Inverse folding.
């Protein structure tokens, strides 16, 4: 992987040549502490390294303190529009703050100051649906615009004396996503959180995400990943693990090789392969198991 700066989210290191981390996001009402804790712990059990929660109001920001008491993985507060919610979430114990500067107004310094004081990193999360007007005027809604917005806002934070930054720049278009990340990777050494936004339901969303995330990780680009699905977040983590496994980027688990079947196959190989995959899904040892259907 490309060597990027290292930041620390809770007790998890991102960038600097460390392993690629898996992220997901709760779809619960964050102010429902019990429901959110239940989902976060299910994600952690599945292999999620970092989790994000929406913070749309003060009640959600305050709930972070209680949620943190019951979980074992770092928590990211997702902030839009109201900088005061970023301040409240930071004070409530969030391990990282995700902001979209394009809809935050003129209060970046306030957020940078509190995060610097509490030693909390910031993810500058840019997406194609909320780019600044001046950037859109110059570039249109393009990969170049995504890259420009991310780098401009990272520079603004650095000018405020804050450099504990992670970047994401997502589009719902696979090609635009990949190109935008490649541009930023060439121009900065900030850790990159990669993924396709609004990717869709489980099947198509996984395919889109695998196409983009796979292309980027093959290039050595990406320090954390999220497979964004319109479905149970646990499925996001499962899909991300499989993508990393396909690229030989995870350190444990069984890699199953099975032939696609043809007229030479003399057994019910499809059912057999599914059964073996299910039986071995919780094995942590790094093994390769071949399930073949003929002498060839």
């Amino acid at each position: 992987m490309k060597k990027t700066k290292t930041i620390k989210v809770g007790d998890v290191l991102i960038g600097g040549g460390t392993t690629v981390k898996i992220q997901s996001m709760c779809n619960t009402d964050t102010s429902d502490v019990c429901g959110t804790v239940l989902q976060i712990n299910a994600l952690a059990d599945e292999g999620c390294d970092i989790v994000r929660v929406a913070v749309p109001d003060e009640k959600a920001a305050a709930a972070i303190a209680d949620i943190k008491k019951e979980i074992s993985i770092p928590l990211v507060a997702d902030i839009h529009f109201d900088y005061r919610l970023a301040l409240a979430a930071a004070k409530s114990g969030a391990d990282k703050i995700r902001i979209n500067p394009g809809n935050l107004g003129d209060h970046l310094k306030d957020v940078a100051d509190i995060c610097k004081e509490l030693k909390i990193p910031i993810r500058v999360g840019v997406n194609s649906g909320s780019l600044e007007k001046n950037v859109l005027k110059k570039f249109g809604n393009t990969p170049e615009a995504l890259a420009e917005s991310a780098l401009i806002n990272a520079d603004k934070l650095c000018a405020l004396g804050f450099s504990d930054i992670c970047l994401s720049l997502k589009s719902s278009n696979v090609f635009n996503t990949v190109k935008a990340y490649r541009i930023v990777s060439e121009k900065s050494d900030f850790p990159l959180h990669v993924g396709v936004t609004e990717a869709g339901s489980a099947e198509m969303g996984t395919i889109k995400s695998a196409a983009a995330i796979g292309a980027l990780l093959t290039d050595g680009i990406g320090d954390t990943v999220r497979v964004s699905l319109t479905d149970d977040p646990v499925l996001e983590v499962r899909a991300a693990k499989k993508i990393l496994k396909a690229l030989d980027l995870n350190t444990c688990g069984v890699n199953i090789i099975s032939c696609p079947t043809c007229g030479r196959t003399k057994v019910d190989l499809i059912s057999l392969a599914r059964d073996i995959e299910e039986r071995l899904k919780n094995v942590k040892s790094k093994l390769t198991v071949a399930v073949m259907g003929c002498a060839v």
About this structure: The chain has a mean pLDDT of 92. The two ends are 36 Å apart (CA to CA). DSSP finds ten helices and twelve strands in the chain.
